[in-house]
């Protein structure tokens, strides 16, 4: 709430780069309804794909991983879960489902933030509860040494800070201190600096980002995984978060690096959304098209495992079928033998 508090008392001059992002996102939002009405059947596969990617990527950022062959079972099935990691991935799926289906009925409130945390963390003792002990953000180095990267809000002050953060968010939307998207990114930054939970803060921050996007009318996250985009750019995510959290407690932090990162993430999601809706040829072949798009985005040699990471929930056999077809068309070439063989796009495939 320190960042939103700054905006309330002294509205900042918006950097030119931020203004460009806002302009691009305004244009993208204007096209949103056209795309969703243009091809409603095509979007079902994108929604399913985004749900899988979001549940897997948001957890993987935090070091929670699951067997690739079980992803669809974990996300869409009701079978017994094998371990804690699978429970957290399914829990995140449940939180996403709640947001996708009931965003309009879910205001940003302490009760709903605790509810999202409880869903995402599953059956663990402090799910849905604020932290009881200090939980500073510690950076670990390869040699085993550590440093405190950021000292978070102490437990006894966490409820007060969270209450003020939510009040400032609602007041900012009413009084329009800054553009709502800037306020959303500032809220996200303040939430991460407060660090209200012992564990799961990053995941809840991403769920809140999706929820607030819905509230503001930006729905690309329904079809494109914002979490996957963050995972793919996580070095920039951590770098801008560290830059914008410096001197946060003193109210002297520079929020714009992180704000621009959040806007960049949303802009990337819209770019992919428009690209995929335009390129998906039919609902029946949607997964094939998603694999083809993943291959077309590769730079240099790649393996089947690389395409798997880009298309979670798609079987290895389907990826092999698509590669076989593309090889027959002269668009890709296999550089070796066996399941770990490398592939590359050909000159014909680069056109």
Outline of the structure:
The protein is 60% helix and 4% strand. With 351 residues, the chain is mostly helical.
Structural account:
60% of the residues lie in helices and 4% in strands. With 351 residues, the protein is mostly helical. The strands form 2 sheets. A two-stranded antiparallel ribbon has the order 1-2. A two-stranded antiparallel ribbon has the order 3-4. Helix 5 (84-102) packs parallel to helix 9, helix 6 crosses helix 9 (201-215) and helix 8 (180-194) packs across helix 12. The model has no long low-confidence stretch (mean pLDDT 88).
SSE layout:
Elements: H1 2-9, H2 16-38, H3 42-61, H4 71-76, H5 84-102, H6 110-121, E1 137-140, E2 146-150, H7 158-175, H8 180-194, H9 201-215, H10 226-232, H11 234-245, H12 256-279, H13 286-296, H14 304-310, H15 316-328, E3 332-334, E4 343-345
Antiparallel strand pairs: 1-2, 3-4
Which ranges are low-confidence, i.e. pLDDT below 50, for 5 or more consecutive residues?
none
What is the overall pLDDT average?
Answer: 88
Radius of gyration: 21 Å
Number of helices, counting only DSSP H or I runs of 4 residues or more = 15
The CATH topology of the largest domain turns out to be Fic-like fold
Number of domains: 2
